[in-house]
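Per reviewer request, we include the raw input and output of the structure prediction for the construct analysed in the revised manuscript.
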Amino acid sequence: MDKTLPERKTVTVDGVTTEYTLCGDSGPTIVLLNGFRMPMSSWDKLYPEIQNHGRVFAYNRHGIGKSSKARCPQTGEEVIRSLENVLSALHLSPPYILIAHSFGGILANLYARLKPRDFLGMVFVEIGHPSEVQLQAKFKPPAVVRLLNDGVKAVERLFDKYKFSEDECVSETLRQLDAAGEFPNLPLKVITGTKKMPFVPEESFNIHLQQQKALLELSPNSTQYIADESGHFPQITQPEIVLTAIKDMCAQVIG
């Protein structure tokens, strides 16, 4: 095992096992929320520096790594409930600093609206604005990519690993988000990768960049960080930018 990475452990709550890591001796609790079907190892390049800023909790959601597969539809509210159960079992009390990537940002957006007092601030790493989901729906991936995706989903259904998957509950999660009210007045850092990924239409990418600006309007206390050498994964390609945003957040909310 890489000695710079924290030890992987598991905790079982109500018969559900979650794989997680926890490191750092003091400071605020920093919660890492992965993108859709992304493992917690997607944050590995932030270690060991990230633990200088607080106690860092990372975990795998249902069906990833050693975490149990889901037992019920994974709407945003259900994912949040499961996360709260794990944090409580590990005696990690709010308020938190939440760092979210990609679809994890949709979940973080909902979490902030439901439990605003549970957070000191949030860092959004290449997440989508809620309205972007609908704006991007008109763009279909190339036929070969659609064929591959359909094939993967067919295999998954056969083995039932991702039954009740988050992507099957997106509409309900967005409904929950809309019903949850306004985003609270929290310090917000938005990290945007400006390199277009292969197969992404130019118009689609431009919409994404516009919607990144819209994220800044969620809070009057927001700052954007540009990762100009990164696409959708700045925490992997330019971890120093993500670490800077986390350092700035901690300085702002802790002093």
